[in-house]
Amino acid sequence: MTQRLWAALAEVQDPEMPVNLVDLGLIYRIDEHDGIVEVELTFTAMGCPASDFILDDVRERLLREDGVREARVTVVWDPPWTTARMTQAGRDALEAWGLAV
Question: For the chain, how many structural domains are there in total?
Fold first, then answer.
């Protein structure tokens, strides 16, 4: 199920750039037990103006998965996010958009 949850979160796009949260490296951990999914994620910067939208999108997307009855999302700041957490697909998407990473 965990793989399916990672795939589900790969469908959640950052509202400010055309890259999903998984490829951006924002998802730190996903655990599931008895239909309760716990996610730890971060943002590229404290005070991210899209943070509430992202949290809502993550919860909403997880709750659409069969067997998920509750989604708990925790924002973590340690370790801090860096571009080193991005996947190659994320880097390619940002570079195609004209952003150097």
Answer: 1
pLDDT-derived band at 20, boundaries 50, 70, 90: very high
Map residue 17 onto helix, strand or coil: coil
Residue range(s) defining the domain that contains residue 12: 2-96
pLDDT, tens digit (0-9, with 9 covering 90-100), for 69-92: 999 999 999 999 999 999 999 999
Residue 88: CB atoms within 10 A of its CB come to: 8
Name the amino acid, one letter, at 24.
Answer: L
3-state secondary structure 49-90: CCHHHHHHHHHHHHHCCCCCCEEEEEECCCCCCCHHHCCHHH
